[in-house]
Design a protein that fits this description.
This protein is mainly α. It has one domain. The protein is about 75% helix and about 0% strand. Helix 1 (about 5-30) packs across helix 5 and helix 2 packs parallel to helix 4.
């Protein structure tokens, strides 16, 4: 099943908005990882990603902070070292989605669309 173009745009928009919000939040809390060396940041990335993968329905603040620090340095986090952990989280999220009723799925979709529309309006 392919995602309709409008749904893709909404999903991509939500991801971009999420990235901006993640970095803004990290900066507003003081950019705590700014002083870390590249090696120290690289050690922190798998630990925070594994913690999120173990509880993927909790806000991933620690992982997001490390990811934001990488982004502020103009670097990409080393996703290849945590691919199994990310797959574990995706499987858990997929299982929860599959267990949702049609009404619950529609409600979740409606929330995503409303978020997208609100974010689009606030930028204009």
């Amino acid at each position: 099943m392919t995602m309709p173009d409008e749904a893709k745009l909404i999903a991509y928009g939500a991801m971009a908005q999420g990235q901006l919000e993640r970095v803004r939040s990290y900066l507003s809390r003081g950019r705590q990882h700014e002083g870390l060396t590249a090696d120290q940041l690289a050690e922190l990335w798998p630990a925070t990603t594994r913690a999120w993968a173990a509880a993927p329905f909790e806000p991933p603040i620690a992982m997001d902070d490390v990811r934001s620090e990488y982004e502020l340095r103009g670097q990409r986090p080393p996703y290849e070292v945590v691919s199994d952990d990310i797959e574990q989280a995706i499987a858990a999220i997929g299982a929860r989605f599959e267990s949702m009723t049609g009404d619950e799925r529609r409600e979740a979709n409606d929330r995503m669309v409303a978020d997208h529309e609100r974010n689009t309006r606030s930028r204009n």
